[in-house]
Amino acid sequence: MAAPGTAADPARAPGPVEALREIGFWLERARAETHRVKAYRRAAEVVAGLTEPEVAAHAAAHSWQELPGIGPKTAAVIAQACAGEVPAYLAELRRAAAPIGAPGKPLRQLLRGDLHTHSNWSDGGSPIEEMMRVAAALGHEYCALTDHSPRLTVANGLSADRLRRQLDVVAELNERLAPFRILTGIEVDILDDGTLDQRADLLAELDVVVASVHSHLRAESEVMTKRMVYAVANPHVDVLGHCTGRLVTGGRGTRPESTFDAEMVFEACRQYGTAVEINSRPERLDPPSRLLTLAVEMGCLFAIDTDAHAPGQLDWLGYGCERAVANGVAPERVINTWPVADLLTWTRSHS
């Protein structure tokens, strides 16, 4: 799949802002170090803030490095783009980009959207509009914005007031981005007693509610099982996020799976119509294959999501699709293969 901003003719030279953002996309997709990504995205914002005469003046004077946040590498990209060339580093990243999850490609082509993403309103790295424009460019018909809930302070979770303000922002963006649709949502914390970390009246207004455990992941199996079943049975919950909480690799280190009675939890998902998330993040790969197979056997619905915290991570759906195909998930059981009207009819039927 092409990156946003990549023309059908790869020889077309992008503008400097487009080139810098596309480099950021490829670096995020490849899980590059955060500081490298930020350097290119910061430079893109600096150039985007210039007037056309200012851009022309810096291009003529070769003075890009005089601007704050622009170093030799980003200056080279800007200069080459201003000269009508495809920047050498961008061309290199395009050539190096390998397909993600090739065995899952047929299923990936059926996905209409992503139901678990984050913006810089919580712990994501980019504004809502940038995330959603990239989602649209990747071919999504819709994408749910699911920033964190208030008690996850380490992730700058949204209070009720901030969430209401975000709903206004999403409404305005939907007018400009149509026919692409941003679905309102939240990744709400499942608290120790199984209740949810946001007001019920607000949850009822949202298009998609993903419920996840982020605290006390090492609780005893019986305690965790009751906690998860209680949450899954909540009529506002549409998707059970990264159910084991495991980390198999990545900069945060590894983390073992939470222990719980998977048959009981997945039976609750089936009974109450809550989809089990297939989390596509490479460091999660959650649920593990044995549990994914069990959920299939028990007749659960699924949501294949990226849990993206940056634009380039929105292209990770292939990882989840590959695992879904390998474990026998039927496409019609994946709720984000459904048209948006059918999806919203289903989510509203819960609450």
Report on this structure.
There is one protein chain. This protein is α/β, with parallel strands linked by helices and 351 residues long. It folds into two domains: 16-96, DNA polymerase beta, N-terminal domain-like (DNA polymerase, domain 1, Orthogonal Bundle); 102-350, Alpha-Beta Barrel (TIM Barrel), CATH 3.20.20.140. The chain has 14 helices and seven strands. It has a seven-stranded parallel sheet. Helix 1 (16-29) runs antiparallel to helix 2 (34-48). The longest helix has 18 residues, at 160-177. It starts with 15 loop residues before the first helix and ends with a helix.
Write the layout of secondary structure elements.
Layout: H1 16-29, H2 34-48, H3 52-61, H4 72-82, H5 88-96, H6 105-108, E1 113-114, H7 128-137, E2 142-145, H8 160-177, E3 181-189, H9 200-205, E4 208-212, H10 221-232, E5 239-240, H11 262-272, E6 275-279, H12 289-297, E7 302-305, H13 317-326, H14 340-350
Parallel strand pairs: 1-2, 2-3, 3-4, 4-5, 5-6, 6-7
Helix pairs in contact: 1-2, 1-4, 1-5, 10-11
Organism: Nocardia farcinica
Keywords: Exonuclease, Hydrolase, Nuclease, Plasmid
GO molecular function, one term: phosphoric ester hydrolase activity
Give a brief rundown of this model.
The protein is of the alpha/beta class and 351 residues long.
Features:
elongated, DNA polymerase, domain 1, 43% helix, alpha/beta, single chain, 351 residues, TIM Barrel, 7-stranded parallel β-sheet
Kindly provide the radius of gyration, computed on alpha-carbon positions and rounded to a whole number of angstroms. Answer: 21 Å
**How many domains would you count in the coordinates?**
2
Question: Structural class of the helix and strand makeup?
Answer: alpha/beta
Q: What can be said about the biggest beta sheet?
A: 7 strands, parallel
**Which class of the largest domain in CATH terms?**
Alpha Beta
